[in-house]
Amino acid sequence: HDALPILALFDQTSFSKFLLQGRDAEAVLQNLCANDVGVDAGRIVYTGMLNGRGGYETDVTVTRLAEDAYFIVSGSAQTTRDADWIRRHIADGANAALTDVTGAYAVIGVMGPKSRELLTALSGADFGNDAFPFGTWCEIGIGYATLRAHRITYVGELGWELYVPMEFAVAVYTALIEAGGEFGLRAAGYYAIDSLRMEKGYRAWGADVTPDYTPYEAGLGFAVRLDKGVDFIGREALMRQKEAGITRRLVQFTLEDPDAIAFGKELILRDGEAVGEVTSAAYGHTLGRAVAMGYVKNADGVADREFIETGRYEIDIAGERFAATAHLRPPYDAKGERIRA
């Protein structure tokens, strides 16, 4: 752990990116989103877009740029699907238009304890907590480029995602690399992101969240606002589920054998009985062991905290069972102190 880099640069340009513009943009998103996106300009909201059953059609970050403009970011493989879902739910006559701007912006993630120091040295902007709190964005300059810095993370460390107009991408990337040597900057890729997000318990659409799973089952109830004063797709289903209780719950596991490696789709056993399968997994380099996530089902009742925490778990990897510890809070930085440092 001591040898791990303290500042990393990620090329996240493949993320899907959309602009939703028009005086009815907020109304369109409030209908689509389970969270409340009626926030002030400058705020970033994590939310799911759900179907009528309460399952995830996608999960996105919604950034409010202005009263009549939002910037929406989702996963790399979802561009066409997400654009279609949003456009199909813009009512006839609504003053709102969606534009796919995926190719217009490079996304450079600058993540790690030294990220504030590097960005301050390059831009001169104030990246302190008071001026630039988590979940907000600000326009900054690096070299001759003007770009948006979003204080958000998919790796669980202090950091910013830089949304750079594509024509300035090489210049900004080069400036970061050249200045980053002083701060121990290392280039990293998507396998590193996958490892880091697993340790932090960040979900991935298509694996941990899908149209078959609801926010309450996925442990993402914090991103649901049933009382936001606006109806949204899936709200009734979520209200029924909240009242009845969930019978399955996404659980994070760490494998006790540091040499065991999981890849996804492995069987999860509780007290020797099959209760689910792994939805995603990776080796956690910070924790020094494999980390997995998967849904645990209680065939006889509610999958509440007591049910999850009283079981003895194993993960079946290629026919061999490995002991695993269940977590309802991430084993790394459970309180999110590092991302708000």
How many distinct helices? 7
Considering DSSP H and I runs of 4 or more, what fraction of the residues is helical?
10-25%
Quaternary status: single chain
Global structural class: alpha+beta
As a whole number of angstroms, the C-alpha radius of gyration is 21 Å
- Order of strands across the main sheet: 8-9-10-7-1-11
Mean of the pLDDT scores? 96
Which series of helices and strands comes N to C?
A: EEHEEEHEEHEEEHEHHEEEEHEE
Could you tell me how far the N terminus lies from the C terminus, measured between alpha carbons in angstroms?
Answer: 19 Å
Strand percentage lies at: 25-35%
Count the strands? 17
Main sheet properties: 6 strands, mixed
3D shape: globular
Contiguous low-pLDDT stretches (5 residues minimum) are: none
Describe this protein with a few key phrases.
341 residues, alpha+beta, 6-stranded antiparallel β-barrel
Task: Provide a concise account of the structure shown.
Helix content is 19%, strand content 34%. It is α+β, with helices and mostly antiparallel strands and 341 residues long. The longest helix has 12 residues, at 169-180.
